[in-house]
Design brief:
Layout lengths: L4 H21 L1 E2 L3 E2 L9 E2 L2 E4 L5 E5 L5 E5 L4 E6 L11 E5 L2 E5 L16 E5 L4 E6 L4 E16 L4 E15 L4 E15 L4 E15 L4 E5 L5 E7 L4 E2 L4 E3 L2 E4 L4 E7 L4 E3 L1
Parallel strand pairs: 5-9, 5-11, 6-10, 6-12, 11-12, 12-13, 13-14, 14-15, 15-16, 15-21, 16-22, 17-21, 18-22
Antiparallel strand pairs: 1-2, 3-8, 4-7, 7-10, 8-9, 17-20, 19-20
C-alpha cells in the first residue's frame, strides 16, 4: 500500500516541536524551571474556585501525574500531593478573566522538587475548553467527561480517557500511550511517534491518527460504521467484516471517516 511520506514526516516534526516547546517553556536543564508572563499575579498552593466563573482551564505541568475529574458542583478544588513543599515549589495558579491557569511551580524557580509531591488533581465543570501541556506525567481524565474542546500535549506521559464527549479533541505525544475507552467526538486528531493508540469510538464524525511505529487499535466503531483510509509502509492489518473501496476499508455504512497513517505500526479493528 502507499505511504504519504511528507505527511508522516510532518507528524514527526510536530512531535519534535512539542519536545522543544515544552522543554524551553516549562523545564530546562539542571532543574531550572521556565518563566511565564504575569508571574506576580499567581497564587501558590492548593485552592478552590467557583465553577460558574470558568470557561476554560489550562494546565502547564512538568512531571508527576495529572488527574482531571468533572463535577457538577458550585465550588471545585485543585490540589497536589504536597508533602512539605516550599512556597516556590508549590503549584501556582491565576484566574485570567474566565480562564483558569495552573502552573507547575513559581516562575523561574531553581532547584529540585522531591518525587511524589506533585501529583495533581483538578476538578473542572462541564462544557469548558481544556488544555494540558506536560512533559513526563501521565494524564488521566476519569469518569464521564464533556467538553467543548480538549487539547493535550505530552512528551513521554500516557494519556487516558474513560468516557469523553467533545466537539474536538487534539492529542499529541511522542512516546506515551493514548487510550480512549469510549468517545463521542465530532473530530479527533492524535499524533504520536512510538506510542500506541487505542480508541473506542462510540460516535465519530472524523478521526485522524498519525504514528511512526506505534500500533493503532479500534476497540469500538460507531453504529454507523467507519471508512478507514489506512496509509502505511510495513504495518499489518488485523480486522474482519469489512469491504474495500480502493485502499479504503469499509465497516458497516462507513459513516465515520478515519485516516490512519503509520510507517510500521499495525492496525487492529475489533
Amino acid at each position: 500500500m502507499r505511504i504519504r511520506g511528507k505527511e508522516v514526516r510532518h507528524g514527526v516534526l510536530i512531535a519534535l516541536i512539542i519536545i522543544l516547546v515544552l522543554s524551553q517553556a516549562r523545564c530546562s536543564v539542571g532543574s531550572i524551571y521556565g518563566r511565564y508572563a504575569d508571574a506576580g499575579k499567581y497564587t501558590a498552593g492548593n485552592f478552590s474556585y467557583s465553577a460558574k466563573d470558568i470557561s476554560s482551564v489550562e494546565i502547564d505541568w512538568v512531571s508527576s501525574d495529572i488527574k482531571v475529574v468533572q463535577k457538577d458542583a458550585g465550588t471545585l478544588n485543585v490540589s497536589e500531593t504536597d508533602r512539605g513543599l516550599k512556597r516556590k515549589q508549590k503549584l501556582h495558579w491565576y484566574k485570567d478573566g474566565s480562564k483558569l491557569i495552573i502552573r507547575f511551580c513559581k516562575s523561574g524557580f531553581r532547584g529540585r522538587i522531591p518525587a511524589g509531591t506533585k501529583d495533581l488533581t483538578v476538578e473542572v465543570p462541564e462544557g469548558i475548553d481544556l488544555t494540558i501541556n506536560t512533559v513526563s506525567g501521565n494524564v488521566n481524565l476519569t469518569g464521564d467527561q464533556t467538553y467543548d474542546k480538549v487539547s493535550i500535549n505530552s512528551v513521554s506521559g500516557n494519556v487516558a480517557f474513560d468516557t469523553l464527549q467533545a466537539d474536538k479533541a487534539d492529542i499529541k505525544t511522542v512516546s506515551g500511550e493514548c487510550g480512549l475507552d469510549s468517545c463521542s467526538l465530532d473530530k479527533i486528531d492524535v499524533e504520536t511517534v512510538s506510542g500506541n493508540v487505542t480508541a473506542g469510538l462510540a460516535e465519530c464524525g472524523k478521526a485522524q491518527i498519525k504514528t511512526v511505529s506505534g500500533e493503532v487499535m479500534f476497540t469500538e466503531l460507531p453504529d454507523g460504521g467507519a471508512e478507514i483510509d489506512y496509509d502505511h509502509a510495513s504495518g499489518g492489518l488485523n480486522a474482519s467484516g469489512y469491504s474495500k473501496d480502493g485502499d479504503k476499508l469499509i465497516f458497516g455504512q462507513g459513516k465515520c471517516k478515519i485516516e490512519v497513517e503509520t510507517m510500521s505500526g499495525d492496525l487492529t479493528v475489533r
